[in-house]
Amino acid sequence: MMYRRLRISAAALILAGMTSCLALTAHAQSTTSNMEGLKLSNDQPIQIQSDQLEIKDQEKKAFFTGNVQVVQGTTTMKAGKMTVLYKGEGASVTSGSADIDKIYLDDTVFLSSGTQQATAEKGEFNMATQTFVLEGKQVVLSQGPNVFKGCKLTVLMETGQAKLDACGGRVEIMLDPKSRPKQ
């Protein structure tokens, strides 16, 4: 197990500050990291686009399907489908009064902020536990030339604690020593 400082921002995986200790390890079964800053911003507007939106207020669900794109600040998330579960008496997505409980992403998930990106087959945000999970045959995190590969990434948004699992295989890490910050 290795500990590594990574950065996550707004609903996107933001990798930053790769250290030389990871450059010594190319493969591992899992990597645990401290990822700072994954905070869902309540003070910035969110723009959501999709081919279709179906709202079921009685069930407290909203289904965004087809070319879903979510933009908040400099962060962009794309997926084939996004299901939003919300709670609260009289809550409605259309009025903006919905208290989001969980967000499910399916059909190829792409998160981007600046030079930092993550891809997976599916994802889940659990607002109650402040947990974000990306899963798939291959979850890829990258910042410029630095790449982390596994099949499940779990991030505790409140603390920044993150774990990348290989699910039976090995976690792969490729770091470019030229990308390290100048000291």
TrEMBL record:
One GO BP annotation of this record: lipopolysaccharide transport
GO cellular component: cell outer membrane; outer membrane-bounded periplasmic space
Keywords noted in UniProt: Signal
Signal sequence extent: 1-28
Positions of the Organic solvent tolerance-like N-terminal domain: 47-160
PROSITE patterns from the UniProt entry: PROKAR_LIPOPROTEIN
Pfam families: LptD_N (PF03968)
Protein name: Organic solvent tolerance-like N-terminal domain-containing protein
Organism: Rhizobium deserti
